[in-house]
Amino acid sequence: MMEKEIQLLDKDSLMVLKFLKENRNEPEDVKCIAEILQLSIEEVEKALHTLEARGYQIVYEGGCSARLLHLPETLFPWDVEDGISTRFMGRVVRAFEEVDSTNIFAARWAQEGAPDGAVVVSEKQNAGRGRFNRQWVSPAGKGIYFSLILRPEMPMSQVSMLTFLAAAALAETLAREFGIDAQVKWPNDVLVKGRKICGILSEVKSAKTKGKAEYVVIGIGINVNHTKEDFPLDSLTSATSVQIETGKEIVRAKLLQKVLQLMEYYYEEYKTTGFSWLRDRWMERNCTMGRFVRINTNTEGFVEGETVGLSEQGGLLVRLPSGELREFLAGDVSIGSANFR
């Protein structure tokens, strides 16, 4: 088991960092920073050195004024927590340089009492996985690999729809923030022109109360700053990233904040309005409906037909060539690259 948790910043460094973030446009005199934060000049200087050692680029002007130029590449927990506008998602974050799987750690933390909305994020996963135990390529410093812990007070039938909620929120975030035409493929992939940009794996722990969940772990992997060279050769035609689609390097902490903010909004709306609202959001972004698909059921082999809808259990409704209408609650869907342009 490989776990290397990122060491938290001391209180003084966090105070100085917050001040520098809020005053990034102009350099601030070190003496002035000390007076405002009620620290000594020596404490401020020590905090600045600590921040520089963590990768924050600070420029000094006139010999005694400091200004924050760039955030580090590392996805630090305090950069995610600072400035996020959620009520509970992402308010508590544990971050790792390296972990086997964020889902595995999150499940263990949930059993130990992690709060609702807590997040586990890692720079690198050594055993990241998707559905059917497929490997999820997680190179260090490139993507956002995180798990969200939820303690939903809802029936298990509604809990099963949280994967769809996450997929719809992720696709909408990419569209809003970057103008990317992201689409969701049943049940848990987010695609851009047929290439995978996000994957989701949800795992549920049943509560002692029948029909309820003790907790849900939603594991999400987003390809963010990957270049084509970061993907295996056999994935070049099936995977993409935000940077590939936009041509820009992305500040991952800001993107994670945006994802969590929209996920929380979707979550609260779903609890209030129910399945129909969520189905509408999912359908707006889906690339599965109305297409001829091939489904690997893992029990009866491959089944082909035309997709016609989504059931209240999240099942894919498919019209077979025989005219029979079937509901598939699990399976791997192939759409075919000819459906994407």
Shape, per Cα inertia axes? elongated
CATH homologous group name of the largest domain? Bira Bifunctional Protein, Domain 2
The total number of structural domains is: 3
Strand order of the largest sheet: 1-5-6-7-11-10-9-8
**What is the N-to-C succession of helices and strands?**
EHEHHEEHEHEEHHEEEEHHHEEEEE
Which percent range describes the beta-strand content? 25-35%
Broad structural category = alpha+beta
Radius of gyration: 22 Å
CATH fold-level label of the largest domain:
BirA Bifunctional Protein, domain 2
Average of pLDDT:
90
The major β-sheet equals: 8 strands, mixed
> So how many helices?
10
Q: Termini, distance in Å? A: 42 Å
Poorly predicted ranges: none
Report the CATH architecture of the largest domain.
2-Layer Sandwich
Give the helix proportion (percent range). Answer: 25-40%
The total count of strands amounts to 16
CATH class of the largest domain: Alpha Beta
What can you tell me about this protein's structure?
By secondary structure, the chain is α+β, with helices and mostly antiparallel strands. It folds into three domains: 3-70, Winged helix-like DNA-binding domain superfamily/Winged helix DNA-binding domain (Arc Repressor Mutant, subunit A, Orthogonal Bundle), CATH 1.10.10; 77-285, 2-Layer Sandwich (BirA Bifunctional Protein, domain 2); 292-339, SH3 type barrels, CATH 2.30.30. The chain has ten helices and 16 strands. It has helices at 11-22, 30-37, 41-53, 77-81, 102-111, 156-159, 162-178, 242-246, 252-273, 275-285, and strands at 3-5, 28-29, 57-61, 65-70, 93-99, 119-122, 144-150, 182-185, 189-192, 195-206, 213-222, 292-296, 302-310, 316-319, 325-328, 332-334. It has an eight-stranded mixed beta sheet, sandwiched between helices. The longest helix is centred in the C-terminal third of the chain and has 22 residues, at 252-273.
